[in-house]
Amino acid sequence: MKKLSVLALSLFSFFSLAQEVTQETVKKVISTLASDEMKGRLIGTPENEQAAHYISKLFKENKLDYCVGDSYLVPFQYKGKTVYNVCGIKKGSSEKMLGFSGHFDHMGTSTDKGDNIYNGADDDASGITALVGISDYFKNKKPEFSMVFMAFNGEEAGLIGSKALSEDKGMEKINKNLAALFNFEMIATGSEFGKNAMFMTGDDFSDLDDLFNQHADGMIKIYPDPYAKQQLFYRSDNVSYAKKKIVAHSFSTADMSKIKHYHQVNDDFSIVDVENMTQMINNFAKTVEKLSPKNFAPKYNDKVKLN
Ligand SMILES: [Zn+2]
């Protein structure tokens, strides 16, 4: 009898842990995207395309469906070349969707001697790791909301990937059902509010943060944007969706008052807090698991400027 209950208990803890994203997964994804082999993932380079294929492979492992056609890769044109965003869907009980995004492109390399690779571990391999992690968490689950996972290209070239995907005809049905978009932009470090906490850009513009915090119930905390003067809301990919009147904000941990790696070659794996990232991704996913179209319908107020 005793033996049996010990076995049952260990099986229980095995299965309850099995659903969570592991530190190994987080480390593998972010270190692969930020590796020197990816040469800074500049849009239009072979390494940028290699990163898109790598993200496709992860989406497949996490059992996502295609957003458009018969591939996760959604093409658009950039300077006469075909380049790609990466998009996958998780079907939930409802047609209504939540979106999760980040950008996988970065700034490539410089002509400097020595370390000349802009690895972009924080910016924004960390954001891609978050959406891969959330899709991993839901791999064997049936959530209430359907979910769309979008890895944007060309953020550093002027938000062009998110603009292309948001305007892609094949995405119209998804956009119509999108209740909110969580765009992850630089979450590799602890925030100025401590660990297990992010800030949301444009927090004055909607009730998304308040609603999310209510459901998170302390598991993870979303703070107002302390750098509101920098207008970060209008400077990342969320704005391509905001322009379509979809509630879309960016979530970050970057301490913009003292950050030393922003758009520098030292934004590499050495600055990544894998433990904190893993905890945040799991707690974000656990909160999302509680959300349904009945209890979660964020709205903009009239402070947001969308034109
Ligand atoms: Zn970025």
What this model shows, in words?
α2 packs across α4, α3 (46-61) packs parallel to α4 and α4 (121-137) crosses α9 (274-289). β2 (73-78) and β3 form a beta hairpin. This protein has 307 residues and is α/β, with parallel strands linked by helices. Helix content is 34%, strand content 17%. It is globular, with a radius of gyration of 19 Å. The protein has a single domain (20-289), classed as Aminopeptidase. The longest helix has 17 residues, at 2-18. Strands 1, 2, 3, 4, 5, 6, 7, 8 and 9 form a nine-stranded mixed beta sheet that branches. Residues 103, 123-124, 155, 185 line the site of zinc ion (ZN).
The secondary structure category is alpha/beta
* Low-confidence runs of at least 5 consecutive residues: none
Bound molecules: zinc ion
Q: How far is it from the N-terminal to the C-terminal residue, by CA? A: 68 Å
- CATH class placement: Alpha Beta
DSSP strand count: 9
* Approximate helicity band: 25-40%
Return the domain count. Answer: 1
Backbone shape: globular
**Average pLDDT number:** 94
Radius of gyration: 19 Å
In the CATH hierarchy, what is the architecture at level 2? 3-Layer(aba) Sandwich
Give me the number of helical elements. 9
CATH topology, which one? Aminopeptidase
CATH homologous superfamily identity: Zn peptidases
Strand residue percentage: 15-25%
